[in-house]
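Weekly puzzle thread! Below is a chain. First person to post its structure in token form gets bragging rights.
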Amino acid sequence: MNRLPLLLAIAAIGFAADPPQVFFSRSFPGSAPPYIQVTVQKTGTVEYKEAVDDPWPLKFQLPEADTQQLFELADKLDRFKHPLDAQLKVAFMGTKTFRYLDGDQKSEVQFNYTQDTQAQALLDWFERAAETAQDRIDLERAAKYDHLGVMKAVLQLEGALEKNRFVAPSQFLPLLDRVAYNETYMHTARARAAELAEGIRNPKK
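Winning reply:
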């Protein structure tokens, strides 16, 4: 019996399987936006949504070292198989969900507030990822529809970079270069965009 076709079929199924991923969402009615969702695949692909059925998710690539660190945090939290909520009387700050997906294996945990330091570190990373995505959306929107608003968006990026609230800053380079070399934008906005791009390419040590 020739087993080659069967083996090839099994291999194809294995290659077609989705890579492991870490998922985060926060549902907080009344906030802006009221819902955010960030998914990180082990390949480094990141997807940001502002609705479960968001038809235009924002995507970017995470450096390998950052991806590894993120999945190591998930492993330290036992891939979210145990409760994280502190069960304290604190203000409602949104329902957060951590989820780990690997093939047909899924585990998740929800919480409002946690005192677990590993969970806090992971939450901070996802919040920074969401802020970064929102800053990119704002700059893309201004660059396309509001040329006078580009300066404000660039300054917002500068502030985020100074506060270390950026995730994968290289994703901004094509957009910043577009602003820097397009004379339809204000000179000051172009100069600040060029300076910011240079800072991302050659960060201070």
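Puzzle host: Confirmed. Bonus trivia for everyone else. The mean pLDDT is 92.
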